[in-house]
Amino acid sequence: MSFIDRIRELDDKYHFINAYAGDEPYGEGLLSGYAVSVKDNVCVKGLESKAGSKILEGYVPPFDATVVVKSRAEGGIIIGKTTQDEFGFGTFNVNTPYKVPLNPHDVERSTGGSSGGAACLTEVADFKHVAISESTGGSISCPASWCGVVGITPTYGRVSRWGLIDYANSLDKIGVMAKTVKEAAMFLGVISGPDKYDSTVLNTPVPDYTQLGSVEGVRIGVPKEYLGKGVDHKVEEQVWGSIKKLESRGASISEISLPHTKYSLSSYYIIAMAEASTNLAKFSGLRYGLQNPIEGDFNQYFSKVRAEGMGDETKRRIILGSFTRMAGYRNAYYLKALKVRTRVIEDFKKAFKEVDVLAAPTMPVVAPRFDEIAELEPIQHYMMDILTVAPNLAGIPMVTVPCGNVDGMPVGLHLMSDHLNEVKALEAAQEVEQG
Amino acid sequence: MDLVERLAKAARLNLTPAETCKYAQQLSVILDAFNELDQVDTDGVEPSYHPIKLEDALREDEPEKWEWDPLANVADAEGRSIRGPKIK
Amino acid sequence: MNATIGLEIHVHLKTWSKLFCSCTTDIDGKEPNTEVCPICLGYPGSKPKLNKKAVDFGITLALALESNIEPELRFSRKNYFYPDMSKNFQITQYEVPLASGGFLLVDDHRIGITRVHLEEDPAKLTHVGGGITNARETLIDYNRAGMPLVEIVTDPDIESTEEARAFLEKLSLILDHLGVYDPTAEGVLRVDANISIEGGNRVEVKNITGFKNVEKALNYEVIRQKSAKNMGVDIVRETRHYDAGSGITSTLRLKEDEEDYGYIAEPDLVKTNLTEDWIGRMKASMPELPDQRINRLELQYGIPRFQASIIVRTGLQMSEFFEKSCRLHDDQKEVCNWLVTFLLKSLNYEDMSLSESKVTPETFVEILELISEGTISNRLAKELIKDYVKTGKSPRKIVEEKNLGLLSEEELGKIVVSVVNEFPQAVEDYRGGKSKAAEYLIGQVLRRIRARATANDVRRLVLEELD
Question: Of A82, B47, C290, C435, which sees the most CB atoms within 10 A?
């Protein structure tokens, strides 16, 4: 059976694909024989890429994202676009007019988001597969941990964003998911590196992420703000189990503090929504995507097509984002948030002088039921992000690796390290994986 | 409410009255939460436009032509021009 | 007309590629939407990358305007919706421009330059079935989207509509000298003007193309504002549009309807360090500016200052033409005189610019050579130059073909004799004491020979013949 056939079978059950690619030739390289799924917000030439939104329905990109080019160059076979929350706005992959993926461990629960489709496919694939995914505030870590797979969010700027349909440009990172640490690490190496088309990409050389040593002598810090109240105690139990295991393998454990953790959520959302509200302005029914018959003046035309094509959460974020940039509020919100970001980054930099890796639960709870999500207020939705938002705001690399189960639902351990120090986090992740 | 109407107009989004009310309420809750940032001392702190140090990404002035059809995704073209709505 | 005026000038920089993408800037006469790419069309997933040459030009211009250059170049998003915007935001510089605090002297009056900054141009709109306020639809051509612009903002130091024009002419000349813009390309210089009279409200007139139109639009505004004041009507703070066809300004939008641009830092771009080294290199390679050139021409060629000024102010090509011509002909004062007095006059008469005509320094100096060789008279040269400017044909050839050389004494003598024989009555009258008859005969000869001899020679020979 070909990849595509098997994927169709699985998709019928779990609903993770938005668009199927055509036939792709077999290639040589590190990804030879691998199916590569691509999150819907990463452009594939000739393949409908709509970032989970109706306003980009029918949009066929005229170019490949750099990560897609690199994947093919190593023999990867692009199989299709995985579903996501519209433009990345969400934690449960329910904010989309397209497919809402089902958690493979319990189909009445969410996969997590925004890269729900990617995590779902990664978990159910019984063939060689890696997923191109993306994180702004935790969209790789969250679904990867809730579906029980490995997710790597690299340092900001490690991977080119050329071809990524933007959520928030100073926060977006393209990353990977796979069943094992080794595969994820290998794939990260494939997609990383300089790119002349992206001004924010780093020119530092890419190490071999598969050359991973032991955790002997590694200093692991556990941020006290990431545990205790707000984290389910059973989840915490699983996480501590893994941390203790690392200790038994030669790592030293200490408690550290990231005092600005609680402010990172507001800072993140203000920056993310300010940037997003400007990124989404280009979707106004001209040049590509959803286009209406031309009628009315431009204000009328734009306002109608945008309201039609964009979902509830998207509109809310545009309104909020526009507010934080408004004259008179800009200093108190947008500029203030940027300064608080500096403080958050300082927290991490200070911590990494004392320790090599931070360890914490990836998410405060296991995957919630769909009917539970429907009852949540927007502010509660935001609280789900708190463990992943701070490291994402700081642009540090992080790896989520399965570390146990609670009532049959996967729990992820979040391992974070300093900028460009992915290897340290991966080493700890591999150790956890080996059990 | 008034604020949400203004913001929606600026962002070119037609909202129903129900949506406007809903967003106004949610906006006020969320903005209250954001106000906690006032507690952070940021005197003399530089804003972080990016989380890492990035500078000097320049391109040589060499023209290159993209070989493609820019009208392929366009629903309404007149000749080679793209048709758009009138100004007033 | 007197008024308080501030100008915002947008100039296309003469780079090879656009500001944030590698599309060519050579868009004149191209079919719509043929010089575009995903970046300048605002496709999702595309990202901008800054053109180094545009920064070079920006620094050079900032230096020429004596302004202070910032150590870091940063860009912002100016957010507003319009059909000519491919992203519905413009990448520009908001908080901190490339440079600020400069000035330009217009006849010893110091006009302050508030800021100089870089930004991208939007697309070109064609309003179908009407003007901007009543068309039924719009056609969009994105070839121009992303073209590199430098924006120069003056302090409201300009004191009259004439001074506004003079300022623009000088600025344009400086830009031409710096090689940062092409004055012959279409629509390269656009002006927004802020104008108020007698301390009243400020009105903005947007998007005027060409200096003549700027002066016209501002003159119209002064008249409009004055009449309103006389009738007791308040001048409203608003943005108006100038229609070159009708010569009037009309309301585009009121100031209360102005957008809040909600600026953020452009997160797809990073800061650029404008190092001492970079600025030093631009300073060292700065071309000669107009004022410097006027001084130099005066000194180097010993020509009067006012003529040096005319030569330089006509344009870069004219001063280069002058200097080339001086290398080909020793009498530089003559070169200058003939160029300023006659060549320029003929060009104006034919409504041609130097670049539009076919004249060259090599053929131009032929005229001077023909005069100094004695082949033609000064008077004939003045006629000849008109023909030369019109056709661009080598003056030597024109002289040959039309047989315009000065007549020899012998040839002239023959003609004199034949004319005298033709008009026996005049001869008789002269001999009868009417000296005016001689003038009549001289006139006839002159008519016949068409400047192929000097009037003095003709007079001499006619009188000789008569006596």
Answer: A82
